[in-house]
Design goal:
heterodimer; A: 318 residues; mainly alpha; B: 363 residues; 15 helices; 72% helix; 0% strand; globular
């Protein structure tokens, strides 16, 4: 085994590489969920959106290859993944705002519907090999192949890292950012300002789902870079908890995504140096981490600082 | 007047879900047509495979049994206003515990005693699993939906770990599994049928849940607390105790589903235990509008649907995910129909309309 030549250094190196590779989907989904929750709605269906994005990105990349060639077609896939996310998001955004309809229940329904549709349409794309997104090599200074492969970065990851501060600026300094915050914090005040709560929430959910769709593209076109039905393994749902952990702050979503990407890489990193007895248990690290973080940061006495005031309330304009 | 209103209300509660199901069928038909299958032939196959013959009915009821039990895992906490979706995890934990008890007791005891032990073990394991969600909710304010969902993944990982490692039967090579239960400990079938006793477990559990919720002081307290938590606290109701008890009962129902699946279908613990009965149970609970008796009916309907999944694959060449798509469409339609209660003029009795106060401006 090649990894044994650098022995135990393989573990931290594997975790580092896994962090850089595996954080991108978390980053996109959590930024999307952050935007959605800022407007006062929760979208649990982003897991389905992630799968739909992964499937459509892979399928389009594969189908467009003869026409656009292997460099352009993955990027078309990324775009279509975002659009597929928007389609699911508009269903969620509309339905979750009907009177007496609980957005958590709609989220579960969209999770089933989205993953079902992705599996249905993606059945025929499990076998073929689609062209992948290019990578940026940061490890060429090193002679060790392990270091080189650990320091490969997806351009989408860089894009996500750019979106995070952009979204923070959007919330802080733009009129539309103010609208989103107002609708999420105090719908009454927003209504008094003459803002359409329905429209702002719908657009926030659709835009958030666009990002989550791109998160799916990171999965199928970069890492692990195939399309299978088990590809997302709850990452869309973890993102919901991740946003709570990040206190609804896009910049902190970035750090939290890196942490979760790293937690996810623990199992494979140990497996790479030959320890696979507890493989499945190591793989629960992101879920356990999420749960623990929620246990330590939540409190029954007060709402969390930074939480949008109207989050999860069914205060639609009946 | 009271009677008319009651009658209209009942009609609404019966008609709206049925209408939602019909609309879902229509949309699904369109979906099948786009996928290149004849929707009417698909409907026909679903009917034939689900309810068309005694044999089909037996398949349906076999699948309905765990659904009734997993649905209760969402139904009961809903009375307290909790949305719990950890059904799959509780089922897995129940199945694991039932396997451990079943293998542990082995030949030493008569089959019936072992089965009771497995059922109790499964129910306790599932119950504690969901009670943990209740503890986190009550003492730490952790969102119960997300925590129960995360725990699904943890339970499945634990199952995979155990059947690949400590519990693995080295002689069974098809896939990583525990040793098989002795035939004496299998859950038998109802005389003259292929339907196992799990169906009775499901029916009885739903009946108990109904009586508990509707006809006991405990159920009354739970419903009160679910209606208005602050009022319940002021009235001195033990909200914490209620939360933990309801969560335990909910989880034990799902745990029992795991025991049924192990003792009647799988006969050994392995990854096949994770077969989405948990997620389908959430759907059943919502379509039944969290009513324990309606759960029985909806579980049978969805059981029929699951039973027809294979035939869609074989005779219409549709992927096995087709049933998942159908479930999603049904779920979405039913949720939309929720928003129509009290809005359709058809179900409004005239007296109430005449004396309705003028609409106030929305706040």
């Amino acid at each position: 085994m090649a990894a044994e030549s650098i022995s135990w250094w393989g573990v931290p190196l594997g975790i580092l590489g896994g962090t850089l590779r595996g954080s991108a989907p978390f980053l996109f989904v959590s930024l999307g969920e952050c935007l959605t929750e800022k407007s006062g709605k929760i979208n649990l269906g982003l897991e389905g959106t992630l799968l739909m994005g992964a499937m459509s990105a892979y399928a389009i990349s594969y189908l467009a290859q003869p026409v656009l060639g292997p460099t352009l077609s993955p990027w078309l896939g990324v775009l279509v993944a975002g659009l597929a996310g928007m389609a699911l998001g508009s269903i969620h955004g509309w339905l979750a705002q009907q009177p007496r309809v609980n957005d958590v229940a709609v989220g579960i329904a969209m999770l089933i519907f989205g993953s079902g549709t992705a599996f249905f349409l993606g059945k025929s794309f499990i076998q073929p090999q689609a062209p992948q997104l290019p990578t940026i090599e940061l490890g060429i200074w090193s002679s060790l192949p392990q270091v080189q492969s650990a320091l490969k970065i997806s351009p989408l990851f860089l894009l996500g890292m750019a979106i995070a501060p952009l979204m923070a600026w959007f919330f802080r300094a733009t009129r539309w950012g103010l609208y989103v915050r107002a609708v999420g914090d105090s719908p009454d005040a927003a209504r008094a300002m003459g803002i359409s709560i329905f429209k702002v929430r719908l657009l926030s959910i659709i835009a958030g789902s666009f990002l989550a769709g791109i998160g799916g593209a990171c999965l199928s076109l970069y890492y692990p870079g195939v399309w299978t039905e088990r590809i997302s393994s709850g990452q869309g749902l973890i993102a919901v908890a991740l946003v709570i952990f990040a206190r609804w702050n896009p910049i902190q979503c970035l750090w939290a995504s890196l942490l979760f990407g790293g937690a996810q890489a623990i199992g494979p990193a140990f497996q790479a140096v030959g320890i696979d007895t507890y493989y499945y248990l190591f793989n629960t690290a992101p879920y356990l981490l999420t749960l623990l973080i929620m246990v330590f940061t939540c409190s029954p006495k007060r709402t969390l600082s930074g939480a949008p005031g109207a989050l999860g309330m069914n205060n639609c304009n009946e | 007047m009271l009677n008319t209103r009651h009658w209209h209300r009942t009609l609404e509660v019966v008609c709206l879900p049925i209408a939602a199901l019909l609309v879902a069928l229509l949309i699904f038909g369109g979906f099948c047509a786009m996928a290149g299958a004849n929707p009417f032939a698909v409907y026909g196959s679903i009917y034939k495979a689900a309810l068309g013959s005694w044999s089909a009915w037996q398949n349906t009821l076999i699948r309905a049994a765990p659904l009734m039990l997993t649905a209760l895992c969402t139904v009961l906490p809903a009375r307290l206003g909790l949305v719990i979706i950890g059904n799959e995890g509780a089922l897995v934990m129940g199945g694991l515990a039932a396997t451990l008890v079943g293998l542990g007791l082995g030949t030493s005891l008569p089959g019936v005693v072992t089965q009771v032990g497995m059922a109790v073990g499964g129910a306790i394991a599932g119950g504690l699993w969901i009670m943990l969600v209740g503890v986190l909710r009550h003492y730490r304010g952790v969102n119960e939906t997300i925590s129960s969902l995360l725990m699904n993944y943890i339970a499945i990982a634990l199952l995979n770990h155990l059947v690949e490692g400590p519990m693995r039967d080295p002689e069974f090579v098809t896939k990583p599994s525990s040793r098989a239960l002795l035939a004496a400990n299998w859950l038998g079938t109802l005389p003259g049928t292929r339907i196992h006793y799990g169906l009775l477990y499901g029916l009885i559990a739903c009946a108990i849940a109904y009586i508990l919720i509707q006809h006991t002081p405990f159920g009354f307290a739970a419903r009160t607390a679910g209606g208005n938590l602050r009022a319940a606290r002021i009235a001195g109701l033990p909200v914490g105790k209620l939360t933990l008890t309801i969560c335990f009962l909910a989880g034990s129902a799902a745990g029992l589903a795991g025991m049924v699946e192990i003792a009647a279908v799988q006969k050994r613990a392995n990854a096949s235990l994770v077969s989405n009965y948990g997620y389908a149970g959430i759907l059943v609970a919502f379509v039944a509008r969290h009513h324990p008796l309606a759960t029985i009916l909806v579980a049978i309907l969805l059981g029929g649907l699951l039973a027809s999944g294979g035939i869609l694959q074989r005779s219409h060449h549709l992927p096995d995910a087709t049933i998942l798509v159908f479930q999603g469409i049904v779920f979405l339609c039913v949720l939309f129909s929720e928003s129509l209660y009290g809005r359709l003029p058809l179900f409004r009795d005239r007296v109430a309309v005449a004396t309705k106060p003028p609409l106030t401006t929305p706040t």
